[in-house]
Structure formats: C-alpha cells, structure tokens
Write a structure and sequence with these properties.
The complex is a heterodimer of chains A (about 350) and B (about 400). Chain A is α/β, with parallel strands linked by helices and about 350 residues long. Helix content of chain A is about 45%, strand content about 15%. Chain A is flat. The interface between A and B is large, with 66 and 60 residues.
C-alpha cells in the first residue's frame, strides 16, 4: 500500500514538474534557432497542403453583395471571390477549385490563424494592429474604401457634422465602431451606439427606425442599401471618416503563399493597365510588348519563382479577368451598387491603383 | 528473483492492488492528456507568433457601449475606461438579465404550470398552446421575433407614448423612467429598510412558533408591511429625505437629432434589454411550467383526496399540501432551467444588448486578439455564476425537503 502511494505521488510530481517547466519555457522569449526552425518548417506548407487538397479554402463574408455573395444556386460571386478564384487559377489552372467558408467579423481572424482557411478575402481593413498583433499578413489592397454614413433622406441631414445626439447602428467587432467613436469625439458630438453581431440584423434595425444612422464602409453602405425596403429613400452622406484599405489576408510565416496571393492581385491590376482581358489573354501571349510577354509567361520564368507553372498569370486573366473586368461585373456603375472607380481607378487614370511590374 | 511468476500472479489477483493500479493508470492518463493539450496549444501559439498574457486588461477601450445598468454603474467613458471595466460592465448586464429573468420566469412558469392543471378549459388550452409553441421554436428565432416585433410597434424616435402619467415615456429608443439620485444619508435609510425586513422575518418566525404552541399566531400579513413602512419612512424623514429624482426630458423642437428624449435625463431601458428579457423569460417559463406540472402531478392523488375529505378547499390544498410536496421534485430541474437562462443570455449579442459575451468576448476580443485568455475568463465567469446559483438552489432544496419519518 505504501509503495503504491509513493509511486502515485512520484508520477504526479514528475508530470507537474515537466508541465511547469514547459509553461515557463514558453513564457521566456523563444530562442532564435527554434524560431527559425518553425519558420522554415511552415514556409511552402500552405502551397503543398493546398495542392494536396486540390482546392483553395477561401474565407468570405456572410453575404455582402458585390464583394462575396452567394446566389440562390449557391454560387459565390464578387470582387473578393475573384481574388480567391485568381489564386486557384494560378495554382491549379482552374478557377473553380475553390471552397468558400462564410465567416462573421468575429471569427474571421481566428479561422485564418488556426488554419481552417488558406486565405481570407472578406473586405477586411488593413490596419497596423491586425498586421502586427494577430500573426497575419495583408497581401495587398483590392479596394480602397472609407467609412461613411447612411441616413433616411426625410430627416433632411446634409452633412455628418449635423449628427449630434444621433442613434447609430453598426456591426460589432470591426474598425467601424472605433472609427465612429473617434469621429464623434473629435467633433465634440454625442451619440448612442447600437452594435449587432450580424450585418443583416443591423440593416433590419436601421430599416425599422431603431437608429437614425447606419455606418460602415461606403461600399458596404451601397451593398446593404439594396437590401432595404425602399433603397431610394436613403442617402449616403458626403463625409468619409476613415481610410479603409480592403484586401486579402494570409498567415504570417509562409512567405511563398503570401507571394502567390500578392502577385495574383498584382497580375490582375497589371493586366488591366496593359489592356489584357479575359477575351484576348490567349492571343496577347504573343504580343510584341515585352511586359505583356513577361506577365503572361511567354518570356521569363517568373512562375517558377512562386512555385507555380509559367502560365500562372495567363490562367488568372483568362479565367477570372483583369481587375477592371472584375470591378465592372460586381461593383461598377452598371451593377445595383453603382460604385464609380473613384480612387480605385488605375494610377494612370486618376486613381491610386498601382501594381509593381512583373520583371 | 523477486518477480517470479508466483509472486506476480499473487499481486494481480489481489483486489486491492488491482484497484490502486487502475487508479494510478487513470490519473496518469488524465495528467498526460491535460499536459499534451496544453503543450500542443502553447507550441502552436509560439509558431504563429502569438503570446499569452493578461496585460491587455489595463489598456483603454476605444468603442462606445449602449446605455445600460453596467455603463451607469461603472461610469463608462470612451478612452478612459479599460478592458477590465468592460469585463465588469458585461458581468453586470448579464447578471441583471439573469436575476430579473429568473424571477419573472419563475412567476410566469408556476402560473402557467398550474393553469395547465386547472379544470377551466380556456385556461388549460391557452397554457398548453403556450408551452408547446414556446418549447419547439429555437430561442434565437424567438429573440429576433420579440426584438423586431417590439421595434415594430413602438412609436418613432421623435414621438412618445406617455407612461406614469407623463413622468416617463416609451418610444423606439427605449423606455424612459424617472431615475433616483441618491444623496448622502441614503445608506442609512437603506440599512434601516434591510433591518426592518429582518425584523419582519423574525416576527413571522415568532408567529409560527406561537401558532404551533397555542394554535393562533399574530396577523403577520398586516403587521409586517406596516412595520417596514414605518421604520423606513421614519428614517427617511429623520435623514432629511435623501432621495431626489431626475425626470426624462422630451423635446419636440430643434435640430432633428436633438429632438426626442434627451440623454442623461432620467433612466432608460433600451429596447434590446426589454426584448432579451421578454424572450428569455417566456422561453424559460415554458420549460418551468412543465417542470411544475410534473411536480404537482407526482404528488399522490391520495394526498389531495385526504385533504378534501378533511374539508380544505382546492386553493388551500394546493398551497398547503400539494406544492410543498411537489417542491422537492421541482427544484432540481428548476436549477437547470435557471442555469440555462443565465447562459442563454449570451445570445443577446444577436440583438445588440451589451452583455458579457457581446462586449468582452465579442468587440473587445476583435480589438485585442487574445482569444484564449478572454474566452477562458468568460467561461470561468459563467462557471462561477452557475456554481453560485446551484449552490444556493441546493441549500434551498435541502431546506424544503420533506423529512421522512
């Protein structure tokens, strides 16, 4: 009996001792060799995992028209969806090899950090906190946006500075809440915030009159306005109160995958600049212009540097289209969102969209 | 030489050795799995460049929160209040819903449960339909229903429905009521109130003892309220009336957003809180009704018949004979329902009520990014609240248990 208790105590003590030392070891700063080892271990990990799976797992929104929205047949469309399809086209040569995971603003970063999705393309704002504190990297900007306000026209408000005392609806867990709080503080105005988890609940509450103002990114305002009972009875106020550069996100520590996503977006922007469209991509491969030849893979071995085949960009453009085509099809002036290019035009046409060259 | 086959089989055949051996194995397996889980988590966090730590609790928060009991109690101010304040505001709002919800759900649940057993056809039918509908629709849907139904019927933000004869008002932004402002000296009045309650309780006990001895107690139902009012009232007057009221102000003119009820006047109950309370109360009451009905039906029919034969009427029988016996069957499942109500309050994030999960494990989590620590804090909080509730209910159960001879 005594022997057994001694053995029992010894086991428990040993386990506690080992466990305790593990905890303290992880609280001290990780030694450099260990960090390096884990980095080289995860580089190339995502691309290999994606190739083994046979599809790209893409994190999208729960339904934002123009950016990522499922129609009643379950097909996802939008400019964020097009970035994912572009990555699939670059990796597999087939833009349809994507599976979509709808995520709320609360789950999106955890889903990416934990490995549940390969990339997040969910109209996510690029901020310093998100870039540095969450273990994630932003692979570029596919839409330069800003936060704005939507009010019913019948209230007669013409500017956001007249909103002292307003009830404001927004979605929780986003930069929206912080920005609107800052805006009201800066201008010495008071307001009441009503923050819901789901965007649909926010729109329904705004429509019912619970709040006077709906705030989110202006692209979101345009998209959600289509869901209101009477879209034309509401107007977007002229003020833009924040910078919201929206773009795709990947995990830190995997430079190769980061490059693939970044250069997929760059390829689409460069293609629009060079006049390469989904219709003429195949024929343009033999164009005289050396930049076009380098982009489409006829010259150079840029694909190999990414771990992909040389026609990576050709596949992206021919199957998904260039940036302009994607924009026109989903959020442009001919869609219900009616968003003009504005700052999202190419740098050569008065906007700020500028992609580094493929060379 | 020591471990030859005879000795070994003797060891294994000994029941004591086997028992202790299994204990060691199980404890070893448990310790190993806990260690493995924690080690796995820590390694993965390190790989992803995240660290554990509770330092974020002293950072200030940059977002606004709806006016509720929590923000009033902790004087919430953007840029000044920290995440620790947010944590406590969340707990306050959750407890508010839990306490009010438990109280109201019990009352409604008991009433509906007894209604279902009545001989009146209309009452019985209404209660049956209520229970069946409420129990079979998911709570989240009921929450949305009550919220948008409530929002739909209330007047707009710049009109009002007067309540309390004009002292308060109701519109889509909330229920506005006069708010008490406590001056110095109110603490003494409150203490006197509590003292008078204790005194009344003492008198009730005395009366019961006297009734057991002599068959007649004093009329506590008359004496107690008079005593409470007398003691509290006298103290109030002596302290110089340390209670002031602020009344909600309603303006009909001026810039559009300044019309309607002025903030910081009176007390506001936002429609989100009312909707959460309504949905949770009705939902839990449906389950409590069935528990009460089961408890009452479980009391043997002989008790009721014996009671009638002695001349007691149905109402008195129910109150003095049936329900005390039914309570010992009702209380354990009732505890579960109370715990369910407390935890279901976390659904309030769907309709913008700022309780613990919504502002701490929701908005704050998104800003700070320390999921493991914050979820751990929230889980522990719910665990503590639930343990306290069930501890109290078990004590109550032990008290009302019938002592068999």
């Amino acid at each position: 009996m005594n022997n057994i208790s001694i053995v029992l105590v010894a086991i428990v003590a040993a386990a506690a001792g080992y466990f305790g030392s593990t905890m303290t070891k992880n609280e001290a700063p990780a030694p450099a060799p260990a960090a390096e080892k884990t980095e080289t271990a995860s580089v190339e990990a995502t691309l290999n995992a994606v190739k083994a799976k046979g599809f790209v797992q893409c994190g999208v929104s729960q339904g934002l028209p123009g950016f990522s929205n499922a129609d009643d047949a379950g097909n996802w469309t939008g400019i964020d969806v097009d970035v994912c399809r572009g990555v699939a086209a670059a990796v597999f040569g087939d833009a349809s090899k994507v599976k979509y995971t709808p995520l709320s603003s609360k789950q999106r970063f955890t889903a990416l950090a934990s490995g549940e999705i390969d990339m997040l393309s969910r109209n996510t704002t690029w901020t310093m906190t998100r870039d540095t504190q969450l273990g994630l990297n932003f692979a570029g900007v596919n839409y330069y946006d800003g936060q704005g306000f939507l009010v019913p026209t019948k209230l007669g408000i013409k500017s956001a500075l007249e909103m002292d005392g307003a009830n404001v609806c927004s979605q929780t867990g986003t930069t929206t809440e912080l920005n609107v709080t800052d805006f009201f503080r800066e201008n010495g105005m008071k307001f009441n915030l009503v923050a819901f988890e789901e965007a649909d609940a926010v729109v329904a509450a705004y429509d019912s009159g619970r709040c006077d103002v709906y705030t989110t990114d202006r692209s979101g305002l345009a998209a959600q306005r289509t869901k209101l009972a009477n879209p034309d009875a509401h107007m977007v106020l002229p003020e833009i109160i924040s910078k919201e550069p929206l773009g795709p996100v990947v995990r830190q520590g995997d430079d190769q995958w980061f490059n693939i996503v970044r250069w997929t977006l760059n390829a689409m922007i460069n293609a629009e600049e060079m006049g390469v469209t989904s219709a003429n991509a195949k024929s343009m491969a033999n164009d005289n212009n050396p930049s076009i030849k380098r982009l489409l893979g006829t010259e150079g071995a840029f694909g190999a540097e990414l771990g992909l085949s040389n026609d990576w960009a050709l596949n992206i453009i021919s199957q998904v289209g260039n940036y302009g085509e994607s924009y026109e099809a989903h959020v442009g002036p001919n869609t219900p969102l009616k968003l003009g290019r504005g700052v999202n035009a190419l740098w050569s046409q008065g906007g700020i969209l500028y992609a580094p060259p493929v060379r | 030489m020591y471990f030859n086959s005879n000795n070994l089989s003797a060891l294994i055949n000994d029941a004591r050795v086997r028992n202790i051996g299994f204990q060691v194995l199980i404890i070893g397996a448990l310790v190993f799995s806990v260690w493995w889980l924690m080690d796995n988590t820590l390694t993965n966090l390190e790989n992803r460049g995240k660290s554990l730590g509770f330092g974020f609790l002293v950072q200030t928060a940059g977002f606004e929160i709806s006016d509720t009991l929590g923000t009033w109690l902790f004087d919430y101010e953007v840029g000044v209040s920290t995440y620790t304040d947010i944590y406590f505001i969340g707990i306050t709002n959750t407890l508010l819903i839990a306490v009010l919800g438990i109280f109201l759900a019990s009352i409604i649940g008991f009433t509906v449960g007894i209604m279902r057993l009545s001989n009146n056809f209309v009452l019985k039918y209404f209660a049956t339909v209520y229970v069946e509908v409420i129990r079979n629709v998911p709570l989240l849907l009921q929450l949305f229903f009550w919220y948008f139904a409530v929002l739909g019927i209330l007047p707009g933000a710049r009109s009002q429905l007067e309540v309390l004869g004009g002292l308060g008002g109701l519109n889509i932004t909330g229920l506005y009521l006069p708010a008490p402002v406590f001056q110095t000296g109110f603490g003494v009045v409150f203490f006197a109130f509590i003292a008078s309650l204790v005194l009344s309780y003492g008198i009730a006990r005395l009366s019961k003892k006297k009734q057991e001895k002599t068959g007649q107690g004093f009329n506590v139902a008359l004496i107690a309220p008079v005593l409470i009012i007398l003691i509290t009232g006298t103290t109030y007057v002596i302290m110089g009336g340390p209670l002031d009221w602020t009344f909600p102000e309603f303006k009909n003119t001026g810039p559009i957003f300044k019309r309607g009820f002025q903030s910081d006047t009176g007390m506001v109950l936002v429609p989100e809180m009312l909707a959460v309370l309504l949905a949770l109360t009705l939902y839990t009451a449906g389950f409590i009704a069935e528990i009460v009905r089961a408890g009452i039906v479980a009391v043997s029919r002989g008790q009721t018949e014996a009671s009638y034969s002695v001349g007691l009427r149905p109402g008195v029988t129910l109150r003095l004979i049936v329900i005390p016996q039914a309570m010992r069957i009702i209380i354990p499942p009732l505890t579960s329902q109370y715990l369910n109500l407390t935890k279901n309050s976390s659904l309030a994030v769907a309709i913008a009520y700022p309780e613990l999960v919504s502002i701490f494990a929701g908005t704050a989590l998104n800003q700070v990014g320390k999921e493991i620590e914050m979820i751990f804090m929230v889980m522990s909080t719910y665990l503590v609240i639930s343990l306290i509730t069930s501890f109290f209910m078990n004590w109550f159960n032990a008290r009302v248990k019938i002592v068999e001879r």
